[in-house]
Amino acid sequence: MDFIKREKDLRDVKLLSPLIWAYVGDSVYELYVRTRLVNSSNAKPHKLHIESIKYVKAKAQADTLKRILDKLTEEEKDIVRRGRNTENHHIAKNANLEDYTYSTAFEALIGYLYLTKQDERLEEILNICIN
Predict the structure, then answer these.
(1) CATH 2.60.40.10 fits 10-130, yes or no
(2) Which of 41, 21, 8 is nearest to 104 (CA)?
(3) Cα(65)–Cα(77) distance, rounded to whole angstroms?
(4) What pLDDT, in 10s, does the model give residues 89-112?
(5) Which of 9, 26, 63, 70 is catalytic?
(6) DSSP 117
(7) What pTM, to 2 d.p., does this model score?
(8) Is 26 an active-site residue?
(9) For 50-78, b where at least 16 C-beta lie within 10 A, e where not — what string?
């Protein structure tokens, strides 16, 4: 995604709130999932949406994070910890608190990797998540 300018340097990204990482990570993951589905299906938009929900809902993201934790570096685990422990006053209507905190942590990791331009590692993790 070279056409989207990621202008913050590493120091600035590290100073951002984990909720900002999650805000970006939510979009990056959603775009990744939608693109994968479009590339592998000729389904209509409604069917694509229904299928994408299986990956992007809080429970699915929480389960995915728990499944890949042992594949993360220590730095990535720290990002996850910060994302999980961040105070958020909003909880999705269809998620319990644990799933929501883990999904926020997952999105924070995705957003952090994206914002720090670690595209190769981001792709590696996203491929593990979907496969």
Answers:
(1) no
(2) 21
(3) 10
(4) 566 667 788 898 999 999 999 999
(5) 26
(6) T
(7) 0.91
(8) yes
(9) ebbeebbbbbbbbebbeebeeebeeebee
